[in-house]
Specification:
Blueprint (H helix, E strand, L loop, with lengths): L8 E7 L4 H4 L13 H13 L5 E6 L3 H13 L9 E2 L16 H9 L6 H8 L2 H11 L8 H16 L9 E6 L1 H11 L15 E6 L4 E8 L1
Parallel strand pairs: 1-4, 2-3, 2-4
Antiparallel strand pairs: 1-5, 5-6
């Protein structure tokens, strides 16, 4: 497969609908919990808002919450021929290792404590979301949580998967179902300091990126 020689395609990144782990404030990276009734409504609302956007392709992680959200959005769409998303582990949320399924506040306190910090917000403010990934890998007793380098190596392969789609043309729109921490990480990396990283993107919100064979540019974030 060859990389597309393209000026740009527009990625519509939608955060999956609300899940039970979201309600219970549990870390949900590679682990999974079903969409709630509100989560299904989040996906339907996003689909209605994007109903007249013509998508040339759709991608999501291989988690149920992402697949359900993608299917709902594509069902609501009036103008696309795409009926099924391409699922790949490249689009998964950050892997939290042995902290998967634990209370978020408890875990981030454990991660921050060796550095004299309490919680994710203090880590992000003093260091960065990138550093929070490295701190979590250090704190994980099994050291299975993804480091920042491991995380981006995987996520970048997801963007390359889109670039390698020979059916895409310049100017096409692509649907991508994404995850909360991934969207924050993208804003830290590509947002140029314009976005408040202390506020998590809403379930069902839309973030738009311009993707070409060289770079990624943020067009809009957490739009509802």
């Amino acid at each position: 497969m060859g990389v597309i020689n393209m000026a740009s395609v527009t990625l519509y990144l939608v955060r999956h609908g609300q899940t039970y782990f979201n309600i219970y404030n549990k870390l949900q990276g590679w682990s999974n919990s079903p969409l709630t009734d509100k989560g299904l409504a989040d996906a339907k609302s996003a689909g209605e808002r994007l109903a007249n956007v013509s998508f040339a392709a759709a991608y999501c992680s291989d988690t149920t919450r992402a697949q359900q959200t993608a299917a709902t959005i594509l069902t609501e769409n009036n103008v696309s021929n795409v009926k099924q998303p391409i699922s790949s582990p490249f689009f998964r949320e950050q892997f939290y290792g042995s902290f998967e399924g634990e209370n978020m506040n408890y875990v981030w306190d454990q991660v921050g404590r060796p550095h004299g910090l309490n919680g994710f917000k203090e880590i992000e403010e003093k260091y960065s979301i990138a550093k929070a990934k490295d701190f979590m890998k250090e704190a994980d007793p099994f050291h299975d949580a993804e480091s920042n380098d491991e995380y981006w190596h995987r996520i970048d392969r997801g963007f390359d998967l889109i670039r390698e789609n020979d059916d895409l043309s310049d100017g096409d729109n692509v649907l991508v179902i994404s995850h909360g921490n991934t969207l924050l990480s993208l804003m830290e990396r590509y947002g140029g300091g314009k976005y408040d990283l202390s506020v998590r993107p809403e379930n069902g919100s839309v973030t738009r990126l311009a993707l070409d064979d060289q770079k990624i540019t943020v067009l809009g974030y957490n739009e509802k």
